[in-house]
């Protein structure tokens, strides 16, 4: 259940946690709680996997060595001590804006959240740098996702606690279990800076880390938790924003965007897209243009956050694709599956990739 509390000790707690995490890394020891889920280790030759098992790293410990946040607590921007350039993820549920600091997601990897009828799992994989949200309703009933400790292509492999099926975050489908082959319904999740989030959505709720949980030895510090060790790639940059269509990915380099907000219109497979972004404000987002707006033109709007663009029908759109002013006030543009990830991960998961403009 979500709750909102007044909390003042964020920085002190983060300092304490950092020292404890370092101690754990030095000793490579960890004490487990009795509430953790039992160990499940598929053998390398196990059947039923949709992916080659040689591409899976099986963790020999119990599930939930990295503990997902199942009862998130939120507080206001005024109570938060976020740094202006600190990265955050923004999720919108109806009229509610939730802000998830990257630093918290880095250590916990999954947040099982709910607001009214929105049951969402917000996930982040530090190795691949991918942050994706999806509907956690399965077979008509909400479930929660946990961190299995296993990796497929160096990427987070959550499991759902209802069926104990295993899922690939970046492939966005179940790859083992009774739901094997089922796809995840992704939800729009925007990454930007805390300064942009606060300016755009000052009434947003900020996730707070209330746990006294100390990461396991598998939960590394951000500076050491990197996917760069997988080697060089064909892509020239370390990470890209990508739009997904089946096994295809259209990638966008942040250098494509100027310090001011830029807007591009393009087609990709069956998608009719408008892409908006700013290198200085550190965001890129993609929207699907409805058939009824196929002839509509879009242009950027500067210095008016949360508004980032307008169309030739005098509609103003915010960061999340909502029309906040104009004749279509109240509608929201749909978003294709899209997220940031490191270059090696794009090549592993979506070999049919291309870079926009190249």
- Kindly name the structural category: mainly beta
- Strand tally is 28
What is the gyration radius calculated from CA atoms?
Answer: 20 Å
Mean pLDDT: 84
Envelope shape: globular
| Low-confidence runs of at least 5 consecutive residues | 3-46, 220-229
The DSSP helix count reads: 4
Biggest β-sheet description: 6 strands, mixed
* Fraction of residues in helix: 10-25%
Tell me briefly what this model is.
By secondary structure, the chain is mainly beta.
Polypeptide structure, described:
By secondary structure, this protein is mostly beta strands. It has 2 domains: 52-208, no CATH class; 237-355, no CATH class. It has 4 helices and 28 strands. It has helices spanning 10-27, 102-108, 194-200, 343-349; strands at 3-4, 56-57, 73-75, 87-93, 96-101, 110-115, 118-125, 130-135, 137-138, 141-142, 145-152, 155-160, 166-168, 173-176, 186-187, 190-193, 205-208, 239-245, 248-252, 262-268, 271-278, 283-288, 298-300, 307-311, 316-318, 323-325, 338-342, 352-355. Strands 1-3-17-5-4-16 form a 6-stranded mixed β-sheet. A 4-stranded antiparallel β-sheet has the order 6-7-8-15. The chain has a 4-stranded mixed β-sheet with strand order 27-18-19-28. Strand 24 and strand 25 form a beta hairpin. The longest helix is centred in the first third of the chain and has 18 residues, at 10-27. The protein is globular. It starts with a strand and ends with a strand. 39% of the residues are buried.
């Amino acid at each position: 259940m979500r709750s909102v509390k007044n909390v003042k000790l964020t920085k002190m707690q983060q300092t304490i946690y950092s020292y404890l995490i370092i101690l754990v890394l030095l000793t490579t020891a960890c004490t487990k709680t009795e509430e953790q889920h039992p160990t499940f280790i598929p053998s390398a030759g196990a059947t039923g996997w949709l992916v080659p098992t040689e591409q899976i790293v099986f963790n020999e410990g119990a599930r939930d060595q990295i503990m997902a946040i199942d009862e998130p607590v939120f507080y206001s921007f005024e109570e938060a001590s976020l740094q202006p350039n600190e990265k955050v993820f923004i999720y919108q549920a109806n009229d509610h804006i939730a802000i998830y600091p990257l630093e918290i997601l880095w250590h916990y990897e999954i947040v099982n959240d709910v607001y009214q009828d929105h049951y969402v799992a917000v996930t982040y994989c530090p190795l691949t740098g991918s942050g994706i949200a999806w509907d956690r309703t399965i077979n008509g009933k909400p479930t929660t996702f946990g961190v299995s400790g296993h990796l497929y292509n160096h990427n987070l492999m959550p499991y759902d606690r209802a069926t104990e099926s295993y899922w690939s975050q970046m492939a966005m489908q179940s790859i083992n279990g009774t739901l094997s082959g089922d796809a995840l319904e992704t939800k729009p999740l925007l990454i930007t800076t805390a300064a942009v989030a606060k300016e755009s959505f000052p009434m947003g709720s900020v996730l707070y880390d209330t746990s006294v949980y100390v990461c396991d030895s598998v939960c590394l510090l951000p500076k050491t938790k990197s996917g760069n060790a997988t080697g060089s790639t064909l892509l020239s940059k370390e990470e890209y924003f990508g739009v997904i269509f089946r096994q295809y990915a259209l990638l966008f380099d942040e250098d494509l965007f100027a310090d001011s907000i830029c807007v591009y219109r393009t087609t990709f497979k069956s998608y009719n897209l408008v892409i908006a972004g700013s290198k200085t404000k550190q965001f890129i987002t993609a929207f699907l243009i409805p058939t009824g707006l196929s002839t509509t033109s879009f242009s950027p709007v500067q210095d008016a956050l949360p508004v980032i663009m307008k169309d030739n029908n005098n509609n103003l759109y915010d960061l999340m694709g909502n029309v906040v002013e104009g004749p279509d006030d109240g509608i929201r543009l749909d978003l294709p599956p899209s997220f940031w990830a490191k270059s090696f991960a794009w090549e592993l998961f979506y070999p049919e990739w291309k870079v926009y403009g190249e």
